């Protein structure tokens, strides 16, 4: 603290400088990005400083090596990755936001099932081990809400979705609730970087269409970019990324660690 023997003007200036230093230190410690600094010097070292196609290519090489799960194994994995922090017996459902018992996994009304955020028909990869089972875009969701979403592209607008407050849909698009808009965007763009057509699977890419059908594209890119900005990664999303890295696939979603890389590439 400043010396109380200093003249008043100098004492107040010293106090202001000391306060600013404390606030700066607190902000640095609170920054989510600070937790990812270690990965910049190791995991991401060949990507840091790049932009555009160079960054995308570097990230593809970095996140490509991964352990792969079977479709059946996703049930137990999702019970861990999507666990409700307020109730360890439950999972959180992505679009509805509801907490549901882990034991209610299945295909009946009232159950939760395995949602492919990048719709598996967009590239026709189904449930094949690889893109069809990649935990970075698999989420728990209510059976009926999952059916309503179907294989629609993502965009703003539509009518309210029954069972998923804050979500909307129309004939060719689905808008998730605000709290997970960024999550959805970062999952879609992870898939576009991870799957480039070189490992027997389609080259997945985002575009600005909402009528992609079975083509290996997913939209709407301009809206996904907005959602990434609007809803930055939170502690739950960061924890999920870490669990997938540590326990299951041993690769990361770079857009959770560095959401600014979305704009740097697209």
TrEMBL record:
Listed transmembrane segments: none
GO molecular function annotations of the record: hydrolase activity; nuclease activity
SUPFAM superfamilies given in the database record: His-Me finger endonucleases
EC number: 3.1.-.-
Alphabetically ordered keywords of this record: Hydrolase, Nuclease, Signal
Name of this protein: Extracellular ribonuclease
UniProt region (Disordered), positions on chain: 151-175
EC top class named in words: hydrolase
InterPro entries per the UniProt record, alphabetical: Endonuclease-I, His-Me_finger_sf
Pfam families, A to Z: Endonuclease_1 (PF04231)
Species annotation: Streptomyces smaragdinus
PANTHER family xref list: ENDONUCLEASE-1 (PTHR33607)
Cleaved signal peptide residues: 1-30
């Amino acid at each position: 603290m400043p010396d109380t023997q200093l003249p008043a003007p100098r004492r107040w200036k010293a106090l202001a400088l000391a306060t600013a230093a404390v606030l700066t230190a607190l902000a640095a410690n609170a920054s989510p990005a600070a937790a990812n600094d270690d990965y910049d010097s190791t995991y991401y070292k060949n990507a840091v400083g790049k932009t555009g196609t160079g960054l995308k290519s570097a990230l593809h090489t970095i996140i490509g090596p991964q352990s792969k799960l079977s479709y059946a194994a996703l049930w137990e994995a999702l019970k861990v990755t999507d666990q409700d922090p307020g109730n360890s017996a439950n999972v959180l459902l992505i679009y509805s936001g509801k907490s549901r018992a882990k034991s209610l996994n299945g295909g009946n009304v009232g159950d939760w099932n395995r949602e492919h955020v990048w719709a598996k028909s967009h590239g026709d990869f189904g449930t094949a081990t690889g893109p069809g089972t990649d935990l970075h875009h698999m989420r728990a969701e209510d059976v009926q809400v999952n059916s309503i979403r179907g294989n629609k592209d993502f965009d703003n607008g539509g009518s309210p979705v029954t069972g998923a407050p804050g979500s909307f849909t129309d004939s060719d698009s689905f808008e998730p609730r605000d709290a997970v808009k960024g999550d959805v965007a970062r999952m879609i763009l992870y898939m576009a970087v991870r799957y480039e057509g070189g490992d027997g699977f389609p080259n997945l890419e985002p575009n600005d269409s909402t009528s992609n059908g079975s083509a290996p594209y997913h939209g709407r890119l301009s809206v996904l970019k907005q959602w990434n900005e609007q809803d930055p990664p939170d502690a739950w999303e960061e924890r999920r990324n870490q669990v997938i890295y540590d326990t299951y696939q041993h690769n990361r979603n770079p857009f959770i660690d560095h959401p600014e890389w979305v704009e740097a590439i697209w």
